[in-house]
Structures are given as C-alpha cells and as structure tokens.
Specification:
By secondary structure, the protein is α+β, with helices and mostly antiparallel strands. It has helices at residues 40-51, 91-99, 113-122, 199-208, 257-265, 280-289, 305-309, 316-322, 366-380, and strands at residues 29-36, 54-59, 68-75, 78-85, 102-109, 127-136, 139-147, 153-158, 171-172, 184-193, 213-218, 229-236, 243-250, 269-277, 325-329, 332-338, 349-356. The strands form two sheets. It has a nine-stranded mixed β-sheet with strand order 6-7-8-5-1-4-3-2-9. An eight-stranded mixed β-sheet has the order 11-12-13-10-14-17-16-15. The chain starts with 28 loop residues before the first strand and ends with a helix.
C-alpha cells in the first residue's frame, strides 16, 4: 500500500496531482450525498434550520413518483438528498429499519459515467447500477454505480449534457422558508467505519478499484485514550478533491466509538461528513443559535494551544467559547469541531472544518476529541 506521507514531494497540497494515484478514474468532485431517512420532510426542515441548507429540488407524488419522496438541499457546492419510502417493504424502508437514518449514496461527479463503471468493474468492483441514461426537456444525465463498504454505494454522475435544476424526475422546490446559509463551501472528506480487519480490505479496494492513494495512516498509538482506540487510513483520489478516511476499531479496555457505531448502525457505514467553511467562528456561532449540539471540549484543552500550535489569526477566547479545536502541520493550521450525532442512534455526525493551509486531519486533537466522545458514550451507557 503506497503511503504518500512517506514519499517525498508527493504530499497533498491543494490541487496537487498525486503521481501515486492512478488516472483511469478522474473525479471532478462530490456530486451529491443521499440519505435514506424516516421522514424526509421533517429532516429537510432540520437541515435547512440547523445547517442553513437551501431548497433546490423535489421529487414525489406531484412529480409522478409513487414509492418515495426526495428533497434536494444545496449550500455552496454541497448537495444533500433526503429520501423516504412510501412502501413498508422496499430497499429504502428496509435500509431505515436496519440502520436508522443514514448515508446510502455517495455520488461522484465524473465526465464519463460509462467509462467510470467499466474501469472499476474490470478491476473488481461489484455492480450496483449499469450505465443508465435519464432524460427530460433539459437534457440527459448518465449514471452508474458500484457497491462499497456495508450498504453504501458510489454512484458516478455525468451531467455535462444537462441544464435542469438537478436531474430528470425532479422539479424546482420553491419554499418561502429559506434561512440564511451557514457559510459552508464543499465536502472536505467523508469517513467510513468498517469492522475489525476491514480497513486494509477497503483501503485496497480504493487503491486497486478506484485508483486512489493512501494519503496518511493513523494507528492505535495515534488515535487512542486510556480506554479506547481506532485505526484509520485516509484514501484520496488523484486531484485530492475526494478524501475517504476508513476507520476500524482497535483493541481497548472499553468499547470504542467505532464499535458503538457498528452496533447501532448494524454494520459498516458513513460515520461523518466533514464540511468546509471559510469562517468557522461565524458558522459555528450561527449553528449553535439554531440548536445544533456539539461535543464538549474541556476548558483545559485551550491552556496548551499556543504552545502546541503557535500563533493563529483567531482569538483563542472565541474558540474556547465555541469549543473549536486547533491543530497545525508543516503547511499551516486547521480549525475543527464535531457535532453530536444528528440522529437518535449514536451514528451519523458532522465535522465543521476550516483549513488555514493545513492538509492534515487534526492529529493533535485526537486525544481531546476521543475523551469528549467517551464522555458522551458514558452518558449513553455504551462505553
């Protein structure tokens, strides 16, 4: 497995192209993320209110669908789809019954969905959807898909010949309720939790099937407390726009956050979505006003920030007030904060991140973060 952290001059930096990553699957970015949920209308209201997403498109009974409804939300380059089934026993309702609300599709924007499908299938991917063309008066979209960890699917979306609001089958969603956005720009990374022994399997999948490279590896010495630990490999595509950390549990004295996730999600899945902002202080302040709950960071964490991180532009008192953590690497620093789970099950949560040059993932914050998560697990009785 190639680890870019060990290869001189191949470290990720902005749009730098990885020579270790193969070029047979060029990806332009994340097209959308679709969640299967128990009540899409209420979930859409939550993400609009709490996260500042805006109404974009809708598909349901009014557009000719008989088995489901979908609301599409947008903020910056992020598109989020929330889908609920009308039927008691189909793929959507079964997914929600097993997993609760959770990520089903991570859709990748490509120039050629047929080629993406062919190249990944011949390298060992399991087919989910053969290349399919959908059309309306605004043009056509080509989509295809492959299975990945658990019930998660990667779709390849080709939209160069489409000018409509989202894709065929959807109508523009007009709403009088459109809260101010929270300043979110794009998805920075998405994290998958897999079973013990699954990390290397799926890292190999992303390397061999999708042409990704291993950006960095964390072992149980990097990510651990006195009680729990995990291991992670961060996989990235050639232009660095898609980053998928893959986590697995490591042996510890108590149940780790990964094991808790796997128990409540009933298998592997997407643990969290990291979304980028250019002003994390304002984003988090507005999210708190909207009722979003974040993990508590002990006040003493901030006593050592200046010694560990050095000078930063933000006022430390404001970061402490909001619970925003800071870490530095050789390229700069980053600021990050993590929500509590956004479902009743302790599964999916969000990370808010602002990069000030740093290309890492906050290794210096792992101990404080894990201790905060363990405190929440103790309250839930699952530690």
């Amino acid at each position: 497995m190639k680890d870019l952290t060990q290869v001189k001059n191949y470290r990720y930096s902005g749009e730098k192209i990885f020579k270790n990553a193969q070029d047979f699957l060029p990806i332009n970015g994340t097209d959308f993320v679709e969640l299967y949920v128990g009540n899409a209308k209420q979930a859409a209201h939550y993400y609009k209110t709490a996260f500042g997403f805006q109404s974009l498109a809708y598909a349901g009974l009014e557009t000719g669908l008989k088995d489901r409804v979908s609301y599409v939300l947008q903020q910056g380059k992020i598109r989020l789809i929330l889908t609920t089934s009308f039927d008691k026993d189909n793929e959507i309702s079964n997914h929600v019954r097993v997993h609760g609300d959770g990520v089903k599709y991570i859709a990748l924007w490509v120039d050629d969905a047929r080629l993406a499908y062919e190249e990944t299938i011949k390298r060992g991917a399991t087919s989910f959807l053969e290349p399919t063309v959908i059309k309306d008066k605004d043009g056509e979209i080509v989509k295809s898909g492959i299975h990945t960890y658990g019930d998660t699917v990667h779709l390849f979306i080709e939209r160069k010949n489409y000018t409509g609001v989202f894709m065929p089958g959807y109508a523009a969603w007009k709403s009088e309720y459109n809260p101010t956005d929270k300043g979110f720009k794009y998805i920075d990374h998405m994290v998958g939790n897999v079973e013990l022994g699954g990390m290397n399997k799926w890292a190999k999948f992303y390397e061999e099937v999708m042409g990704f490279a291993n950006l960095i590896t964390f072992d149980d010495k990097d990510i651990s407390t006195n009680y729990t630990a995990l291991m992670s490999k961060v996989m990235t595509n050639g232009n660095g726009r898609i980053k998928f950390p893959i986590n697995e549990p490591a042996h510890g004295l108590k149940k780790s956050q990964i094991e808790e996730y796997l128990d409540f999600y009933n298998g592997p899945g997407c643990q969290h979505i990291a979304i980028a902002t250019d002003n994390i202080v304002e984003s988090v302040r507005e999210m708190r006003k909207s009722g979003v709950e974040f993990l508590h960071v002990p006040g003493e964490y901030y006593d050592t920030v200046k010694n560990r991180v050095g000078e930063i532009e933000e006022e430390l008192s404001k970061l402490k007030e909001l619970g925003i953590m800071v870490d530095r690497d050789e390229d700069g620093y980053l600021l990050q904060i993590f929500t509590k789970p956004v479902e009743d099950r302790p599964t999916l949560f969000f990370e808010i991140i602002q990069r000030k040059g740093a290309n890492s993932f906050g290794k210096g914050n792992f101990k404080a973060l894990f201790e905060s998560i363990e405190a929440e697990q103790a309250l839930r009785g699952t530690l």
